[in-house]
Design a protein that fits this description.
The structure holds 2 protein chains of 2 kinds. Chain A is of the alpha/beta class. Chain A has 13 helices and 17 strands. In chain A, β3, α4 and β4 form a beta-alpha-beta unit. About 7% of the residues of chain A have low confidence. Chain B contains 7 helices and 2 strands. The model of chain B has no long low-confidence stretch (mean pLDDT 91). Classes of the chains: A alpha/beta, B mainly alpha.
Amino acid sequence: MSLTPEQKTLGRRNFLKALIGTPALAALGTTAALKGPLSGGPVKAAMIGTGDQGRLLLGQCRKEFIDLKALCDINPKRLERAVDGLTKLGWPKPRLYENWKDLLNKEDVEAVLIAVPLWMHSEIAVGCLDAGKHVLCEKMMAWDIAGCQRMLAAAHKNGRVLEIGYQRFYNPIYQAAHDNIIAPGMLGDIYFARLVWHRNGSWRRTEDPPPPPYDPKPWGYPDWEHLLNWRMYRQYSGGLMAELGSHQVSVVNWFFDSHPSSAYATGGIYRYKDGREVNDHVYATYTYPQGRTAIFTSVQSNKFDHYSEEFMGTKGTLILRGETEAFLFNEEDSKSTTIEVTKQSSNPVIDASESRAADAAGRTIAGDRTDKLDRLASYGLEIAGFCSAVRARTPLRCGPERALKSATACILANESASNKIAVPIPS
Amino acid sequence: MHPFGSKTSQRAQPVALIVLRTLIGWHFLYEGYYKLILPAWTRDGHPLARWSSAVFFKAASGPIAGLFHRLATAGWTPWIDRALETGLVLIGLSLMLGILTQIGCWGALVFLTLVYLAAIPVQGAPQAGSEGVSLLVNKNLIEWAAVLVLLTFRTGEIAGLDLLLQRRRKTVAEAV
């Protein structure tokens, strides 16, 4: 249909007049400024590394947050075990891969959970980030500082979420302790933190290898023992400092809102002379700014002490034990207080109540009254928080910058123990 | 005095009708849009599950609850879901933009009738998850009556794309 110029003008005018008669345009314009929900379902993800830690994470995945599409592991037995576990939990059978590069090439996933031996963190995480995937990588961030820095740079370069698996940052007890006790200064001036992770065992695992012709050599392990017990060998592991200490050092960094300026560590292979290369006893002293010190000890010859982080201030002491309990001791009257984390709102709320004082052995029965949290639930919250960051860009609770600092502290503590010298930690 | 009030109120009447139509249209449009984009996430990072009419039908309690319950279990849920979601959006667009307004009004009436019949407030007491207290008359029924007003006043002839199309047809007819 051809319209005369007059008709066109009239038509445009009528159109505008008709629409001006309704607030529809204004309403539609307003919607652009309103904040509605963000489209998108659960984050489509894959997992690389289905050993003990990987399976632990898989068990904590919630379907409303994450959609597990594929699994990858160089050990077919572990892969099979992971699939069994997932299907028992009602997940559809994921696609399986032996090589993580094949997974990246073939799978249309948005995110990857990485739970492989420490020495491979950097290579796989950077590969995933460069492929445009968001990454949740198990702690410690990487085997060396350069690897951590490559991961951080890859996350920034590709604009992807990178979270490191320090589940304490997602634990409601730790959040409550930080927000309601540490940050308001309830402990007064804190000069000392004691970090304890003692166990009485070899840390060695025993398991039959997959049936022949399985060969771990193509994956960088000379034999089955090196793959199974990779934590014992320096080429793959950072030992107790990386596997245990990094959790606790990251908490101290968080609570002190700082990071250590130097580390001095000692230790050795004193009990288990079984061919391992990493120390079975580790004692590390960290110096923080403002006269603060944190001491981490990890022994494999005694488990009397449950693992804990203790913050000692001029007005009180906070003890976080086993990731499930928290105790607050008032310095003045030596009364202990349990911290009960309630689920009254979306944010953890603490409800402090006075209870019996610590007994002569330094223990308290207050723990019996504490609402113990499920330790594993923190892993679920960590995965949920990661997925929220992917979808809604909510802030990460730990994040790669913090993880880099705690990893640096742990790597340099190992260097200190090896060289028997105090090592300055760069900021 | 004019039977429909002063000149000012006469001028305000069509505006009021269009405001009413636009608001009801937005209500339908957003309801449909929201259901269509699910599953989604809140801005603070909480997942919102996919919507399903089966939940609504299963909870029906009115005089035709049996029919709704059968619908919930008939295996047509995905088709019903998509039809309802799309229908809500189309009704919303129709009322907001004033296009095919009468059809949009009929659609809105049918939809609101279903919603009302599925949960007629006969208890006269507060219900979990609902605001205020109703006995027989609830907000769905009031919105139904408001749409009835829009239908009978033929608001598409006051403002909107229907009016534009009508004028264009008239102009073309005159030109021929």
